[in-house]
Design a protein that fits this description.
Blueprint lengths: L10 E4 L3 H12 L5 E4 L12 E3 L5 H7 L3 H7 L7 E4 L6 E5 L13 E3 H10 L6 E3 L3 E6 L5 E5 L4 E4 L1 E4 L17 E12 L2 H4 L1 H7 L3 E6 L2 E7 L5 E8 L4 H4 L7 H11 L5 H8 L6 E7 L12 E3 L2 H4 L7 H18 L3 H30 L6
Helix pairs in contact: 1-4, 1-11, 2-11, 11-12
Length: about 375
């Protein structure tokens, strides 16, 4: 049974991502009222992305606080922790890390599809918690310590606390900080493969049960097992943001994109170039952005941030975990501190230093994933 929230301070979470939903779930579990505002029209308005590894001390800790750890474990794929590193020139196995043995200490980092995890969190909330199709365009802190939200239809609504959990291009962030995301110099081009064990058996063997990585200078291929026999692949390029325009390639012309990518990966083993030739999904261009590190702000009553809105980092395994932990931490502070402002100050006092360390580590992780020079 989902919890029935009591009345209390007016709390709005902008963004129905993993961090915002975790915060809402923990608040409701403690009988607090909360509203989640999401610009998308429904939960299935768009695909939710690939697979995530949830760490014991962050993502799993947040799910424990949310009372959802058992349900997560029923969906998770411990075998997805396997990693295979291949030589780009001949696809020889350079390194292999299997999943931890059953019952190993530390909890491991089992994989779960992002969409499955989001669905788990959504299903745990009281019906009507998420207001779908409510596009927030900005936030204005008010002199009395509350915050006014502006919506795309011209309406406004005041809350005692607004939590910006609305991602990289947050509409709440300007209420606290002038920082804007910058391009990292790396772009991921995404594609996917369906029913891999039957339709793409050679690729399935190459990837194994978890993830496969092969890298050269400024070029990396990553392929990851998702649920239901799907493999999602990322073609990582250390190139200018407009690499396709400079090459005269129309991103809408799949054959042109394919041909250009094959030229970029000339000299790579043909078993790896299979990823470029044979995807079942269209290529999707995803330039990677980050916020400055460190990214901090002076406390402002009535508003705060979590997840990518607070510390956009490269996608190397920390972002979703950190966002969920922050959602749980903020909710815990809101139910234990004497007032909203005390809670937000306590939360930011822990979150900001922790995010600085994580952002530094993520930047180093991206440099390792897509090296600019020979190591």
């Amino acid at each position: 049974m989902n919890p029935t929230p009591a009345r209390g301070p007016r709390i709005a979470i902008v963004g129905a991502g993993l961090g915002g939903l975790t915060c809402a779930r923990v608040l409701q579990r403690h009988g607090r009222s909360v509203t989640v505002l999401e610009r998308e029209a429904s939960a299935d308005a768009r695909p939710q992305g690939g697979t995530l590894d949830l760490h014991a001390d962050t993502g799993q800790a947040a799910l424990r606080a949310a009372g959802l750890l058992d349900r997560f474990q029923a969906l998770a794929r411990p075998e997805g922790e396997e990693w295979r590193v291949l030589d780009f020139a001949d696809a020889a196995l350079l390194a292999h890390q299997g999943p931890p043995a059953a019952g190993a200490d530390g909890g491991g980092r089992p994989e779960i599809d992002r969409g499955q995890l989001r669905g788990l969190l959504l299903d745990s909330l009281t019906e009507g918690t998420v207001r779908w199709g409510r596009a927030v365009t900005g936030a204005t802190p008010l002199p009395d310590g509350t915050c006014r939200l502006r919506f795309g239809d011209g309406a406004t609504e005041d809350f005692d606390l607004v939590v910006g959990a609305d991602g990289a291009w947050s509409r709440i962030r300007p209420a606290l900080s002038p920082a804007v995301p910058r391009y990292t110099g790396v772009t991921f081009v995404e594609t996917g493969f369906d029913h891999c064990d039957t339709r793409h058996p050679d690729l399935a063997r190459l990837v194994g049960n978890g993830s496969m990585l092969a890298k050269g200078i400024g070029r990396t291929l990553v392929a990851q097992r998702n649920s239901n026999g799907h493999i999602r692949a990322y073609i990582a390029l250390r190139e200018p943001r407009d690499w396709h325009a400079a090459a005269g390639v129309d991103l809408g012309d799949q054959q042109a994109v394919r041909a250009h990518l094959l030229r970029m990966f000339d000299g790579w083993d043909e078993r790896l170039r299979y990823i470029l030739r044979n995807g079942d999904s269209a290529f999707v261009n995803r330039p990677l952005y980050v916020l400055p590190a460190p990214h901090t702000w002076e406390h402002v009553p009535g508003v705060t941030l979590l997840g990518d809105a607070a510390h956009l980092m490269p996608p190397v395994g920390l972002g979703a975990n950190l966002a969920m932990l922050e959602g749980a931490d903020l909710a815990h502070a809101l139910v234990t501190e004497p007032g909203i402002d005390d809670a937000v100050r306590a939360y930011e006092g822990v979150m900001l230093p922790r995010s600085i360390e994580a952002a530094t580590g993520s930047a180093q992780g991206l440099d390792h994933l897509v090296p600019a020079t020979a190591s």
